Q: What sequence folds into this?
């Protein structure tokens, strides 16, 4: 457990020279060094209980960089907006890459809809006959 808590930041973010990869949408604040400046982000929302995540830029100086936001494979219709306007970027290798000069107050809203569906037990498995589970994903 101790190792998990000390290394959780490495699971949430993967900083690269060309982009900051956001892998997990956990509410937090982070400061990542980009060309000698600190790119400060605040991730908020109630994901996964709600399907929306907000990333706010808190850096005072403008910083040109790419945010690469992970798009879960199970999510068939992710949507993103930047300061209220739809983002028109093509996903690459499971990430939505948004390149721009980030300014304090910029907000990215990412919607990852999770449908609720019923999963029925196999009728030929005696212990599962007539059973149903509720699953929230896809």
A:
């Amino acid at each position: 457990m101790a190792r998990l808590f000390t290394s959780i930041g490495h699971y949430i973010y993967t900083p690269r020279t060309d982009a900051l990869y956001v892998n997990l949408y956990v509410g937090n604040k982070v400061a990542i060094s980009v060309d000698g400046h600190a790119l400060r982000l605040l991730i908020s929302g109630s994901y996964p209980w709600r399907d929306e995540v907000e990333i706010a830029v808190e850096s005072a100086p403008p910083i040109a960089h790419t945010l690469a936001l992970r798009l879960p494979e199970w999510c068939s219709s992710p949507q993103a907006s930047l300061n209220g306007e739809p983002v028109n970027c093509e996903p690459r290798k499971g990430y939505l890459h948004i390149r721009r000069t980030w300014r304090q107050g910029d907000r990215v809203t990412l919607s990852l809809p999770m449908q609720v569906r019923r999963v029925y037990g196999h009728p030929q498995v005696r212990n599962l006959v007539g059973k149903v589970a509720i699953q929230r994903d896809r």
Summary: The CA atoms of residues 60 and 104 lie 5 Å apart. The first helix runs from residue 2 to 12. Helices lie at 2-12.
